[in-house]
Amino acid sequence: MACSAAALAAAGWLVSPFLDSLSDRIRSCADDLFRYLPHSGSASADLERLQDYLLRLRAFASAVERARRHPPHPTLLAWLSRLQDAAEDADDVVDEIRYRSLLDALAAPGLDLGSILDSPGSVCSHVVSVCSDHPLKQLPSVLDRLATACADYAGIASLVGIDGADSPQRRNRLARNSSSLMPADDAFVGRQRELAVLIEALVGCNGSAQLGNQSVPVVAIVGDGGIGKTKLAQMACNHAIIKEHFGTPMWVCASSHVDDVRLTREILQAATDWKVDYDGIVNFDRLQNLLVSAVAGRRFLLILDDVWDDKGMSMWENEERWRKLLAPLQHGKQGSRIIVTTRMKIVADMLGVRIPMMLGGLGPEEHWLLLKKCALGNKDSRECLHLEEIGRKIALNLDGSPLAARVIGGMLSNTRNARDWNNILETDFHGDIVKKLLSSYYHLPQHLQYCFAYCSIFPKNWKFERKKLVRMWISQGFVQMENGSMEDLGIQYFKELLARSFFHTLRQGNRTHYVMHDLIHDLAQMVSHCDCARVEGDMSKSIPSTVRHISVSSNFLPHLKKQCDLRRLRTLVVYKDSSMASSTIPDDFLAEVKNVRTLDLTGCLMSELPEAICCLIHLRYIALPGTIKMLPESVSMLLHLQTLDIPKKCQLNSFPEGMRRLVSLRHLGVDLKYISMIRGIGSLVKLQGSIEFHVKNEYGHSLQELKDMKDLHGLLHIKNLENVQCTGEACSAQLSSKRYLKILKLEWNSEGSASGPTPDEVLKCLQPNKNLEELHIKRYKGESSPSWLEVKILSQLKSLYLTNCRRWKLLPPLGQLPALRVLHLKEMCAVTEIGIEFYGGGTGTFPSLKDLEFDDMPSLVSWIGENGDSIFPHLQRLKILNCPKLIKVPLLPPTTKSVTVERSQKISNLKLTPYCSSKSGKFALEISSANILSEGFLHQKHLEATEVLNIRGCWGLEHAEGFRLLASLRKLRLSQCNMDGEQLSLSLEHLTSLASLDIVDCQNITSFFLPAGSRPFDRLQDLCFQDCRMLSSLVNLESFVDLKGLIIERCIRVTTESLPAELKGMKSLNKLSISHCPRFQSLPKNLPMSLEFLHLIGCHPVLTQWLHGRQGPEWERLPLCQITIY
Prior knowledge:
The chain folds into seven domains: about 1-110 and about 125-160; about 215-360, 3-Layer(aba) Sandwich (Rossmann fold); about 365-525, Winged helix-like DNA-binding domain superfamily/Winged helix DNA-binding domain (Arc Repressor Mutant, subunit A); about 530-790, Leucine-rich repeat, LRR (right-handed beta-alpha superhelix); about 800-910; about 915-1020, no CATH class; about 1035-1125. By secondary structure, it is an alpha/beta fold. Helix 19 runs parallel beside helix 21 (about 420-425). The protein has a 19-stranded mixed β-sheet.
């Protein structure tokens, strides 16, 4: 199928960036190319001609790009198409030469390449036959076509009136200053009235009346594409009133391409804050039941963004479909709401919305302010007065569309030149908005045009993962640089597109994705129509014959060969079809797509990758499904492969032995245990990401393998360090050269060989790079710390974990590490004292430490703190566990928010936690001895801010004076304490704010009274006695005039005489509960009229009999109240 003129006019500008990247690739591997040229003949001259043609054609293509606004000429479009075909054939030739050079290099002694290539019947023997026909034989044909393109250009340029080559200065002017672009999410102007109306509809008492008759009303925002529906909903969700009323909103994209099962699953995931993965559940009823449980009794706000009706259904069928979909949500708490954004009022009607919000364009002034904010940011408007008149005219041409204002404003943000602004003003913006946005595409730098257009192969509302998309761009050659990181440059490309509003951010729980607005996606489709295609279930869809990048559903894969030329494909993405339980790749399919660079098979639910995968000698990127269990050995023939992505949940039966041959591999996404199996991993010098390495006394598993792996990012976990044979092996790992590593784990398992180096010698050689942020040392058998564990080397270290280092006696001066935030010491059995050397002796120690933990340190006796307040100035969390000999601890800093001490001699149990919330500044404290309140461990500010105190197993309250500091204490629970009633009363004397008191299993308390002359407890509201078997007197109860609740449980000596004869003075008493007190046989006289709840359970049988019979003096004494009697 031929492309339309309009589509070709837009898509043709993708040729020049491709020529750029091809020229860059030829330069980068020039040495390899010339090395494998025949020594005689014209091959060298041919290659030089190729480079020359590409440079000339690059200039010609740039001239075409400059003339993009001219009406497309058929001759010019045909020339562009022929040029791209010839350029891609040249790319294939160059790529195959590079593959041949890698293949020859890997055939060197010591690499068992023949075991794959020469095995009888091996599919990979086909690779040898392909490469045996020297690719340079194809080069003359390619050169002829490029020469023809060069010769034809002059006549074509004259015919259509194109100037000469492009000006680099002009080409780069609009591309600079990208760092000044304002994120799209910050640009919100106007709509204040609409926002107020929306918030009132969501939380106001009159909102439901206008919305509909559902138990969970629907608010519909209706308007054209790009008019700001989603933005308005986002602003409402971020409003403080909405956050306080609903908590975290549930946001789901509900486009026309989402089926009912998937939509229900996404609503369910949003309801669980995206913390639970329900991908494996495909049963609609089960998902609905889970959704009922997730929202039951909860007030929620659900946003269904971009809802469409199903054109294949009648109005009634659409209504019924949505009624079933939303049925589980009706179990939510009253006050819940659903926001729907849609372009169609019929959607609001079918959802039962009486008065939808009809959103129109912005007014002229608001539209100009939005355009100005996106174009000029926060710059002083007086500096740009010469642009305001032009900008206002541009805004008028955009018909009030916020999306157009953001995109055009992002484009204008790169220049303050009035001529550039006038060029935008002169652009014909009449017609639909996609054509208006086309201008923003034309003004993108050429490398970004390619990257943006490529995104059209993904479905609408696709959740882009930034790293994955960048790796796909790299695999296609869109990101090229001679020095530095292609990944970093690709991320920069993405940020520039994000800043220009071609993407926007979507946060769901802890996950961050990026999505394209529907109209932006339409633009991507328009400009890539000839190169990119997407087939979503419709097998009758025509695919242009020029397509090079395509995505299809798995059910369409067997039919793809009939619909397009597979040999042209550079990208193939296969999505899962929900109706298929499993899928496979046709046997001969991979041989047909031999030129593909990017292959995403995540939608093919297969368990085994075909051996024929090795035919794809150009492959750079492959992503496999979560069902994969077997990788063929032929994978190791993919010598150009840069990314191999296998879901970490996959349980592989085996891992290819020849993985070391993938010398171009940059990203290996697989569970780390499989990476540890790779023999000779040191060949993968370009590998980034995290790896696990097991040291073995075998070829390919010594530490020397790590020597040249300088691009490792993230985590390096080295195990079995006891197998290191000599210090030279340890030093050869050159960990100090791995500047991108953030986490290093060093682990021993046993004593090691008697003839080998000592653990101290090995650890000394494993000095990490200064950029390291997290270090783990486990089961180290040495007695001293390495010399590099100090501030000069590890100035960026944020977390340090020392575990099971049983002979390590003296801790290094960690207090001087300026960035250290987390320090965990566990099973450090030889450490007896943490002294002043721990702090390093400098001014200010542990300046950044927030989390400190000592666990299972059986020999630790003393922990000495420095004098003054400079110790741990930012500490927030402290844990001391299983330190049975510890008798000395320093004073905690006031910044500490959480403290846990268990099983130490000094403190057998202590737990300090934030009360209500971490921001309240109040604490709950649990201790086993009241002495700790006055012994200089907890800071005075902790005691003054403690609202809840639980003392358990306390033997005596000799230091009750410590209670004086508990000025804020409102709740006190004493359990299993041996105090008597007098000690209890003296302690309570200091608790002036106490509102609740629980006394549990305190066997020495016989009475509860106030000392003579003490103040009345005018704040105590709840009093509870449980299991106090010696308690017999509560005669002072009438002193507690504000007491609202009194509970007495299992206090067997309590009788009627234990209480005051009359309780009428307790005018606030609301609840009285006496249970399992068998001697309690009558009620006090004159019970207060405030009493509403009386619970008598397990009391004297006589009392129970009278009350059950509703007669006698006991019954007559009761005020009108709710009575429970057993």
